[in-house]
Amino acid sequence: MGNKNDELRKKRNKPQRYYDYGLLAVIIFLCCFGLIMVYSSSSYAAQIKTGDSLFYLKKQGFALILGIICMFLVSKIDYHKFAKLAVLAYILAIVLMILVNFTPLGIEYNGKKRWFGFGSTSLFQAAEAVKVALILSLASLVNKFSKKIDMWKVQLLIFAIQAPLIYLVLDNNLSSGIILFGIVFLVLFVASRKKARFIIAVAAVAAAAVFITVFSDKIIELHILKEYQLERILVWKNPTAYALEGGHQVLQGLYAIGSGGLFGKGLGESMQKLGFVPEAQNDMIFSIICEELGLFGAICVILLFLFMIWRFVVIANNAPDLFGAMLVVGIMSHIALQVILNIAVVTNTIPNTGITLPFISYGGTSVVFLMMEMGAALSVSNSIKYER
């Protein structure tokens, strides 16, 4: 009888594993909503181009199924094993970007070599794989230098290690390069107890942005920036003056947002997706959400992302160790930056940088690697223990 009581007592006192079903629920909801919006925004264009209105939906659906499988497989792996792969992931990411930038394995699309593939067959967008590798290596480095992480020399060293990877991505993909830089900055900001230097850095970047905006004419004369970068700044400042060039997409997106009103025209009733907004299912899908579901729908989408960010914060705060916490912070930084920048681009708050809306925009590579990141976050959550 005593043995049975002891066994029952041990079972009651045994730490129970936590699993963040709230995060899982919002991931599944956003992915399903993304499929609906991909079909709504792309059916007309798909019918015209391919004769199949479900063309983009089928491709996105297949990628999502693959992504969900990857997410659940990764979530079942002890996240500590990811730390052992950090160096290998970093090296493979460097090799991948070199192959994409400087060999025939890099496939050019819209004037940019961003895809890895063979011949005319593109396999995946290289920058999406690099984001995962950078988050892994960054979390590993912060964990390794945890006792000296407040020293500015150590922070510069960590950034210097990631700099070659960021540079290789920046060469052909400005938006992804900005996101990679932002992930490094935010992870170091969270890891460090000395915040003043980061605040000064943000202020300096803001001042530089204001300077570029005010003195853009002088910058153009000095040829400091590349031609396409200057064009984006000019379009951002006055899209109506460049309506036949880069300003067309921006203006049509703003028309879509404005015409949606409070509750929108109704799901599937967008006019701007009928050839007015180029490739509406990609970077500009948020404008179609605003047109069809209105301000109410747009706010609901933003609230869902905020809920996701909150779940990441909860997991990071309760992670068993620093590596797990920094891994989740890196993933959170990626999602937060991409959402903020996408919405800022669509509303013309910042110049167009070609950033997709996570889980919602069309893009098989993006959704697969995002789901792998979600699997890693769920793996950390599953390692959290609590007493009954």
Automatic annotation (TrEMBL):
InterPro entries: FtsW/RodA. GO terms for biological process: cell division; peptidoglycan biosynthetic process; regulation of cell shape. Pfam families: FTSW_RODA_SPOVE (PF01098). Belongs to the SEDS family. FtsW subfamily. One of its GO terms (molecular function) is lipid-linked peptidoglycan transporter activity. The chain crosses the membrane at residues 21-40, 60-78, 85-103, 123-142, 154-170, 176-191, 198-216, 284-310, 322-347, 359-380. It is a multi-pass membrane protein. GO terms for cellular component: cell division site; plasma membrane. Its EC number is 2.4.99.28. This is Probable peptidoglycan glycosyltransferase FtsW. It is found in: Membrane.
